[in-house]
## 1
Amino acid sequence: MSDEEQSGWQLTESDPGVFTELLKTLGVPLIVDDLYSLDSETLATLKPIHALIFLFKWVATGDSDTGPGSSSGAYDPEFPGFFAHQVVNNACATLAVLNGIGNIPSLPTGSQLQELLSFTTGMDPQTRGLVVTSADWLREAHNSLSPPSAISLEGLNLPRKTEEAYHFVVYLPYMGAVYELDGLKPHAVRHGGFSEQGEGWLKTAREVIEARINTYPMGSLEFSLLALRDDPLPSLQTQIQKAQQAGNKAVEHDLLAALANENSKRERWAFENSLRRHNHVGLIHGLLTSLAKSGKLSQAEAKAKEAMKKRIEQRRARGGDMDEDD
Amino acid sequence: MPVSFDRASTLLAFKAGRAFRQDATTTVTADPAKGAILLSNGEDGLLHFMWKNRDTDIPEEDLIVFPTDATFTKVAQSPGRMYVLKFSSSDQRHFFWMQDASSARDEEFARNVNSILEDPENPLQWGSSEPAAEASSSTSAPSTSAPDAPANPTTTPAAGGFQATPEQLEALQNLIRAGGSQTQGGLGGAAGVAPDMSLIDILTPATLTPLFTNHPELVPALFPYLPSDLPLTPSAEVLERIVHSPQFRASVASFDQALRTGLLGGFVQQLGLPEEAGLGIGPFLRAIQQQADRENRESGARMDTD
């Protein structure tokens, strides 16, 4: 059995809806959004952004520990903020979130998180990682968005398995400098100061991230970027009220569209999260029963056999071990 | 060697270029090459999402897509006509930009791409249908303004009823892991016997959608099996969304794998099935058919309406 199974931390999807739900459980009024671009206009629409989460998988072989990109910036063993090492693999998404929110000044949080943060103040990153990952309530919050253990049988699922190779790094501003918090590195990495003018810390962060991406050979890197940002709903509502009072129809219209977008995204997240938490075996049984009752099961079975036959022939034609096995 | 596409049937094709971001910047930049996106049913019986260079006529990208695994959506953050093909089973992303002279049909192509990605048998829909009035906004989602009040169905299935004991699970997991290297055979001991079918191919949207439409009387019986915290009121439409979801598909895949071990005897009894139903997919389906026949008979042949 691997460490992960013993640790009781389950693998979770790195999806904005999952992160946002976790933040809600932690009592933090922030959300996470997918970021498809680091250009200033995109970033401006998401402001204020408190941290960027860079998650990547380095698909090339080599010394993955020190990999390229680690040359920029300098270790800061004196980093006074919150930095926890990634001591449990499956916990990396939650640890990344903590490394982010642990360094946002005067952020309201739930009491359990607040206790945990203050309890670990002054600890070295390794101890902090251990303390954090041994918090039952945090593990439960993290696990609550993976399928219930009944028949989930994680680890069977090849696509999911690959997710374990994902690595999370947080970039954020801290006391006038951009820091990189990578739970697999011994210390926080300081990337130099930034100007509060214009784009502020995001300009420096973009340069650092882009430089890092460039050190990987073309095509050897799969990555996603996520933005940890203020929940835009309250401010949207205030702005809409203001626009209404000012009678500014055009602005109001745009704001209402943005609000509708945001709401439909939340609705989708809530829907997906409820499916993530659910054990679908009952439904599977029910659906098969309905097919059987309507006399359609044997037909579906014949189709499924046909599909499988084709797939096997296909695999053979390609020389046996094309896709699934490696 | 380019594959021959003669026998592959093209389902949909339109002009589009590629866009990349892994280059010198994280910004997604459009590649000027003229191209086309083609979706086709390959000779292999699988759905192919291809990108072909229109100058050289060579397909430079050929992705095999499993039903419901991918979506094709507009990149809201980009001012241009940029779309992203996103996979739910991995973090793979492929960017494209529409190259048709007019942008009028962008959403229409995207809608049809998604329809095929959900189920290659879905019929294409051309021409602007009713929601065209809102086509100007980039939200192509069938935005059901969901009632905020979470619907709490009164009957929640005893989720506990499906729990395997931790011991059963552990035994199962160990066995599966032990045979894992063989992947296809499930249990290594089964001498590499390939499975003859998968539940994933049975519980497809293509099979289930007609069921929901043609047998509305069977639909409410499924509601108790839906998540109790679902933010929508259960309905045939909601069921459809669920059977399309990667989360449901992943559950089906896991359960399929578990069944293949042949070790679910104790577990299936909790579903009211005889122990032998846990011996594999074939026995499981046979037992369900028998259970269904019995229930049909008991309910007095009220079912023979069609």
## 2
Amino acid sequence: MMVFVFVLALFLGVELINKVPSQLHTPLMSGSNAISGITLVGALIAASSDTAVGSVLGVLALVFATVNVVGGYLVTDRMLQMFKPRSGPEQ
Amino acid sequence: MALELAYVVAAVLFILGIKMLGRAETARRGNVVSAGGMLVAVVATLVSGGMAWTWIVVGLVVGGAVGTVAARTVQMTAMPELVALLNGSGGLASMLVATAEWWGQPVGSPLRNVAIVLAIWVGSIAASGSVMAWGKLAGRVPGRSVRLPAHAFVSVALFVASLAAAVVFVWPLPSGLMALALGVLVVTALVLGVTQVLPIGGADMPIVVSLLNASSGLAASMAGFVLDNSALVVAGSLVGASGFILTDIMCRSMNRSLANVLFGGLSAAPSGSAKVEGDVQPIGMEDAYYILEAAANVVVVPGYGMAVAQAQHAVRELAEQLEANGAEVRYAIHPVAGRMPGHMNVLLAEANVAYEQLVEPDDVNPTMDTVDVAIVIGANDVVNPAAREDAGSPLYGMPILNVDEARTTFVLKRSMNPGFSGVQNPLFVKPNTRMLFGDAKETVTALVSEFKNA
């Protein structure tokens, strides 16, 4: 069942990205990179595991995943905020 | 059930977010929508119960603080470095999640074991490969192609060792052997990440960065299989697929296959190009000004050199002077100019250049003969006519910006050294090319003052 979901999502990802103009490649990449921080959800579960080693690994994963998520979304927003059409406000 | 529903909502928000990210008008909102999806997934997981709150708060605060500071303080010119590092932390997190899950429950189905192996393998390669890419982009590691003694042999040996460890791990075995196999897998994968990125030259970095992006997504997806968590599987595979598409676009923009980038080719053989004959014609600031002053149609072609010189603001100023003088100014952006996909676009956006002024090679090439002046700023391979004319050139077949067809071409360049690929550029000796030697920012600023003092 999960494999089915996996394959469908792969195809969807290909369809979504195929026609993106090249000027948006960087924000698209850093924005989708932030989504790959979804592993944060896995880290939450791992950090709450019963074994000490599992918890330590989980908390480490949590830190790295949070850096990925928070850093990724914020920096994407910072970039996109600079993209302006000609009619847009100057400076 | 409620958790699954929340994950469905999160997945829908991710999909909508990515879709909106693909259009300039909606991109910023798309990013917010996608962040909303992340919030839904995280909050739903947190309230599902059984959480070790103390450690979770510590992890979220530490990670959040590091991420916030990094995102807020990074220079726009250092964006490729940051994106590489973020890819790496995502990959590392997925690898750690899979390891932690295996530790908590070492016995599982073969399918679960395969997912653990893949999450750890791909995640580790993404992590060490990204650190390596960061090192190259930040200048801590030589940006050119670096080859160790017996490089190919070492890579193959590492790969075989990885594969053997993976097979041992998936086989139903006592957990002591599994742990050993896991250790070998992690170490070989981490070293493989380094040895795979080390020989890749700076000009191929856009491909490497997008491939690492795909890997971090794939690793998250595999971790999702380990946890039997649909949110990770869906979001991870979306990112994996989009990263691979981006990688493919980058490869096609260089007319190269992914295998060629990863396993040598151009970076291994920079010698194949023909010797370029002819004299370069330098031009003084004042003469350059007179030509620009008379131009009605100007195309600016930025490259990595513009980023290095931090010249984007000066370039925009020059464009404004030209426009005030009645010229039409466009910026022609090659998809692989710079060190990550869309690198030039970000820098020009930072300098307040409107995105309507940015054009792609297919839009500008057919009318290049109507361009009075093409100003090449720190770009080299993407304007090298050998890609069109010299079948023996390693660049042959790569779609380029045909600036040599413009009436006059200015090339701003620090020196006559060849570009990152080490390939000679016959553009520099064409009869209608004029060289402006020096730091790109100083040269452009000097041209701006010529206009102001006129």
